[in-house]
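Tutorial, part two.
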Amino acid sequence: MSLFVPKFDESVIVREAEAEVVGRAPTTVRLLADSSSTGGALSTQRVTLTAGADGAAPHWHDRSAEMFFLLDGAADILSGDEVLTAGPGDLVVVPPGRPHAFAAVPGADADLLIVLTPGTERFEYFRHLRRIALGEATRESLLEVQERYGNHFLSSTAWDARRRGAAPGETV
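Running the prediction step on this input gives:
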């Protein structure tokens, strides 16, 4: 087991009013800290989803675990082949290499704090998603940057069934 020791000298402080906001309802992302500001320790963002909105399609990360902490509302979270429903205060940590996705439960809002560790440079990935939403880039362009952002997409029968309205899964 190797030990990763991040290298940064000052505390990272991000005031809500100063956080860059990408997107708008139904999917709003607040960029909080990227890997470069935390010496590689983590990258983190706050994602607010309204009215059952999708968060991220099924994907996996090579080198980072991803933590989902539900601040408010209800979210469906794919972990492997299982879809869990998380409520306020629930925590889900997905290990590297494991397929995952997240979305607000249909008819509900969700407010999540998401952390990848060790960190990767993710802010530009979210800006890329904004360009897609604005029609400045295609969805297919994400396939071209998967390796750069460590975000590898895949299909998931379990996720597709849940998002089409299959029976609710286990509550975390």
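The longest strand covers residues 65-73. In part three we will examine how such features are distributed along the chain.
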